[in-house]
Records
---
Amino acid sequence: MSNDPYADLGNASDEMQLRLLEAMIARAEDPKQIAMRHAYLSKVNLPAGAKAVELGSGPGDVTRDLIQVAGAAEALGLEPSSVMVRAAAARHSDTLGLSFAVGDAKATGLADHSVDLVALHTLLIHCPDPEEAIAEAHRILKPSGYLTVFDEDPPSVTAAIADNDPFHPVVDNLIRAYVHDRWLVRRTAGLLLQSGFDILHRDGHLYLPAPDSPYFLTIIDRGADTLLAEGVIGEELAQGIRTEARRRMETGHFFGSIAFVGIIARKR
Ligand SMILES: C[S@@+](CC[C@H](N)C(=O)[O-])C[C@H]1O[C@@H](n2cnc3c(N)ncnc32)[C@H](O)[C@@H]1O
């Protein structure tokens, strides 16, 4: 099993599930993230009454967008973490046609050829054996059904502002601890082609949040806390890293960016 806590979140401690819920909400509510989701989800062209599923739905904002942006009539979010499922249901209780349940992307229990759209939004880089989730999406999709895949390119994540910036190793450490396969997004199109999909669009999206981004603060804090938990640094240095991120944010000197790749594919 992977060390990436997202890979087995249903069995992680409540503390870890709540921490990642907080990080995922901060990211989902970031206006630049909302704009990127709109940019790729508005490229699907669903039939009336379409059914959509998000696998790995986390706090549920992307599942909600499958109705509000992609135009599905119904959307189901499946997710192994019951903490995430409860939070998603509570956060989006006002959206008609939306539901959430505990489930596994590799064995959804949904019928063959029953869904018009499957969304995998920042799931695959956290999945050991991602081809199994892609095969499950293929099985449940109707012929010509849409698969959308959106993932970050982890080697692109940076918060450094100079060659010798200590945020280099902090961010590298976060990626090492929180991503199962840091190169996957560069192989995803090939995996989809060999799994029975045609690629309609593959676009890059640069995420350059505001200099006081709450999501990027979770990246620095989690990077520092992982180094602390592993005994690499002590509490004083961990606190210094957290304080430095806040200092940069308060003075407008913080920089963070991530390249994402969005793919719209159709079942062949
Ligand atoms: C980085 S989060 C993304 C959540 C959501 N898609 C979003 O972007 O806000 C990845 C999610 O995938 C879930 N996940 C990981 N492995 C999974 C699997 N085998 N089946 C379903 N979900 C899974 C994790 O529990 C986590 O909530």
Note: The chain has one domain: 5-152+181-209+257-267.
---
Amino acid sequence: MTGGAGFIGSALSRRLAESGHEVVASDNINDYYPAALKLARLGHNGIARPGDGEKVASSLLPGLSFVRLSLEDKDGMERLFGEEKFDKVVNLAAQAGVRYSIDHPYEYLRSNVDGFMVLLECCRNFGVGHLVFASSSSVYGRECKVPFSEDARTDSPVSLYAATKKADEAMAYAYCSLFGIRMTGLRYFTVYGPWGRPDMAPFLFADAIMEGKPLKIFNGGHLMRDFTYVDDVVEATKRIAEDAVAVSAHTDSGRGCGSSGSACGSGSGYGIYNVGCSSPVRLMDFVAEMERAFGKEAEKVYLPMQQGDVYETYADVSRLERDYGFRPRVSLEEGMERFARWYLSAENPLRKE
Ligand SMILES: NC(=O)c1ccc[n+]([C@@H]2O[C@H](COP(=O)([O-])OP(=O)(O)OC[C@H]3O[C@@H](n4cnc5c(N)ncnc54)[C@H](O)[C@@H]3O)[C@@H](O)[C@H]2O)c1
């Protein structure tokens, strides 16, 4: 599992190990946001002092180990795949963030395109049966009608981040078609919760509320987001990664296949799923929920729409529900309470007082 020191990856690797799976998590622990938080997530999973390239076993979770490694380190990745003989791979490592991609485009190509390419080649050359990879709701761009369906066209990305996620979907499709490796892309919708990302709105708003600084509200607050609680995302990803249905069965039923609903190639299965709460909220309602959870009213400053941003996200999750009997369900109220409790606790190395 790549991206194991990340927000979603640290929670997923913990959950998979707790369920009895043998998991090797990897991550390069880059400094896109403070490495202190990534190291604290690893510490929470019982991984201490992760050194370069060497495998460290968790002291808390039997079955979990960690390797510090970059996706684009071809030799290191080949060595790891050769040693471990993975049957499945979950790829969550990526350069994330829409706004950062405007000023740091090459970071996105390095991790999300070159790195993803190395991963695909490793899956091909080391007999991996199923690659589950994180895509993003951002592939829907600004023009899609809501709720976003996996059948909608996604060829008008409005950020380079979205373009690289779309590229990942296309590259995975090609490898599924050429080499018969099962590929499942998950379009996550604005994920929040404990151990969350400090570059995303919930964390930034929490910082501002605690420091008594104004919250930056873009597009006058006229934005809707399908905020999705991290445990729901972890559960959906786990079910899909655990799915043992043979590739040929996917082909026969059309289950889990691409936007056309058909299989991508001879005897292989390609699937795309939205993973979102399917319950979008207005940004100002989200802010009100945060103020309630943190017990403080925030000052606000209203700013224009940001470059690369979309007005609304809203997931149609009927495909996920049909194929995996699951739909995200943690309410914003409950999720925000859990996030606030964690943010204010000693577990959060970045908390503002
Ligand atoms: N959090 C969200 O709301 C959201 C929404 C849509 C899609 N996603 C996608 O889900 C995945 C996980 O997101 P997250 O929120 O946990 O992000 P995150 O940034 O917390 O986690 C990603 C991890 O990948 C690592 N990483 C980055 N580039 C790497 C590379 N080249 N080699 C090895 N490791 C590398 C980072 O150090 C980081 O720990 C990402 O692919 C992201 O694009 C997230």
Note: Confidence is low (pLDDT under 50) at residues 246-267.
